[in-house]
Structures are given as C-alpha cells and as structure tokens.
TrEMBL record:
Ranges where the record places region Disordered: 1-24
Organism: Staphylococcus kloosii
Keyword Transmembrane helix among record annotations: yes
Keyword list, A-Z: Cell cycle, Cell division, Coiled coil, Membrane, Transmembrane, Transmembrane helix
Protein name: Cell division protein DIVIC
UniProt record, GO biological process: cell division
InterPro entries cross-referenced by the UniProt entry: DivIC, FtsL/DivIC
Source lineage: Bacteria, Bacillati, Bacillota, Bacilli, Bacillales
Coiled coil: 59-93
A Pfam entry, by short name: DivIC
Residues spanning the membrane: 34-53
Length: 132
C-alpha cells in the first residue's frame, strides 16, 4: 500500500510550501544568530574569568609583598629607636664615663683600678659579644 504522493501545482499548495520554506530559513537564521551571540557571550565570559583569576593572583602577590615591606619597615623603626637611644647615651657624659671605666679601665685623677680574677671572664664575654 505504498502510494506516491504528488504535489498539486495549484497556488494554495505552492504558497504553503513557500511559507514552510521561509519558516525553515527563518529558523536557520535565528539559530545562526543565537549560536553567534551565544559564542560571543561565552568568549566574553571566558575572557572576564581569566582577567578575574589573574587579578586575584596579582592582589595576593601584592598583599604578601606589602606584608614583607611592613615587617621590614617595623624592623627599621625599631632599629631607628635603638640608634636614637644610643645617640642620646653617647651624648650623656655619665654614660661615656661608665663605658670608659668598664671597657677601657680608665680612671679619674687619684683613682686606682684593681683588676680582679673575675674580670677576665667579663672581658672574654665582652670580646665574644663584640666579635659577633
């Protein structure tokens, strides 16, 4: 029971066939446009994702570098305070006199300095501290 179907060549069927063909063409065009715009959208999302990841990485690196610099700055601040204190001590006459007496065994007029056996260990400790 197979029959061959033939188109009738009247205006109605040809108009319907034209409409169906135009609809197919419109669907193709719409599908192409959706695919094109979808591809562009996906490309934009990928590019923005890559930029986001690289920006986050550079922010992390900058944060680590900033922390290192803050630590170094704090060490320099502490060193500056120690140097200012030492400068103040070196400008203090009593401190200079104490250092001269302890380290160099200098004395005032009329004073006699006695060197005790325990003084050698103190000298060796001072010498080893100065070597470091």
């Amino acid at each position: 029971m197979s029959k061959k179907v033939e188109n009738i060549g009247n205006t109605f069927t040809s108009a319907e066939n034209k409409k169906k063909q135009q609809q197919r063409m419109r669907r193709k065009v719409v599908r192409r446009r959706v695919t094109l715009f979808g591809g562009i959208l996906v490309a934009i999302i990928i590019i923005l994702s890559i930029m986001l990841v690289t920006q986050m990485k550079s922010n992390d690196e900058a944060t680590v570098e900033r922390q290192h610099k803050e630590q170094r700055y704090q060490k320099q601040q502490d060193e500056e305070l120690a140097l200012k204190e030492e400068l103040n001590n070196l400008n203090n006459k009593d401190y200079i006199e104490k250092v001269a007496r302890d380290d160099y065994y200098l004395s005032n007029d009329g004073e006699v300095i006695f060197k005790l056996p325990g003084d050698k260990s103190k000298q060796q400790e001072k010498g080893s501290k100065q070597d470091k």
